[in-house]
Amino acid sequence: MSELSGNLEPASRSKYRRGPRPFSLVGVILGLILGVSGSLTYAWVINPVIKTDIEPWQLSETNKAHYVVAIMMSYAYDGDPVRAVERLVELRLGDDPIQAVADIACKLATTGYVDSASGLQAIRNMMTFYQLQGRSGCADTLIPAGDTLATPLLIITLPSPTLVPPPSKTPTPPISGSVTVTPTPFAIVTPQPQSDFVIASINTFCDTEISGTIEVFVQDFGGDGLPGQAVRVRWDGGEDTFFTGLKPERGPAYADFQMEAGKGYIIEMPGRSDPSTQPLNAAPCTTDNGDDAVTSYRVVFRPAG
To answer: Among 223, 211, 197, which residue's Cα sits nearest to residue 297?
Structure first.
């Protein structure tokens, strides 16, 4: 028995005398790669961070341009240059925000942005704004004054009276009979009508975070957003006009309006679309989680045709 124990003792001791296993650098690298890949996939694809309530100056250069277009369309509507400049300052466009408008108009004028009537009108509004402030840009030459959205609509004639000749040494016989007038052509020009819009869809939803909100999206034929488009809501005893593009984190097509519970609202693009045939009622609703809220609406405007 002792002999058997003696034979087993070296084997059992060697079991506990083994040194540590070698460090696996490959395993560590593979673990890091898998960990980083999984984290990025979760952060970028599965649950990406959605930025909300960001400041205007934090926008990308493209979204800043859309924001400037919306500011200029609002200026064309209300004619308030002080308010327009205050909004431009919030973008932190540099020491001269008015010249920055001219520079952005220049960039837009060199792209396909001018191919649509609304894009061309937006640049013209920008040009009017900065030219009145003594600034200039390449859009002034790319879009000359003669290239307008106006066409002659009506030709009328106005009479030009025959002037009485001054007195002279030779007596002039008195004028008898009717006076002859020469017609002078006079052209009245009116803006060429923009593409009319229609309400493409109105959908309801119930959400406690955006309770009682009218979300508006104004899109072109291709479904791309159009910033700076006026949208008007009317209700019993009041109305309000707001513009797309002033919340660029939601896209250039987006605008919204907060309703008052219990009221009905008619929505339209003033001068561009017919009003909604049925009011959007701010009625109570219940979410899927059983929470109480006010019905919200998602309205999409698109060009007719």
So the answer is: 211
The dihedral sign for the CA sequence 71, 73, 78, 82: positive
pLDDT, tens digit (0-9, with 9 covering 90-100), for 223-248: 899 888 899 999 998 999 999 998 88
> Residues 153, 190: contact at Cβ < 8 Å?
yes
How many residues appear in the chain?
305
* Token representation of residue 220: 């072109």
Q: State the Cα–Cα distance between residues 23 and 288, nearest whole angstrom.
A: 53
Q: How far apart are CA 158 and CA 161, in angstroms?
A: 10
Cα angle for residues 90, 95, 96 (degrees, 5° grid):
85
- Given a cut of 50, the residues of the chain with pLDDT beneath it are 146-163, 175, 178-194
Q: Which helix (H) or strand (E) holds 141?
A: helix 139-142
| Residues 282 and 295: beta-carbon distance below 8 Å | yes
Q: What is the pLDDT of residue 79?
A: 81
In the chain the domains, ranked by start, together with CATH numbers, are 56-142 (no CATH), 197-303 (2.60.40.10)
Amino acid at 214: I
pLDDT reported for residue 18: 57
Structure letter (DSSP) for residue 290: S
Reduced to 3 states (helix: H, G, I; strand: E, B; else coil), residue 187 is strand
The pTM for the full model equals 0.51
Give me the sheet containing 264-268, strands edge to edge. Answer: 238-243, 230-235, 264-268, 280-281
- pLDDT value of position 276: 92
Q: In whole angstroms, how far apart are CA 184 and each of 72, 86, 157, 162, 187? A: 38, 47, 5, 13, 10
**Which pLDDT score is estimated for 295?**
96
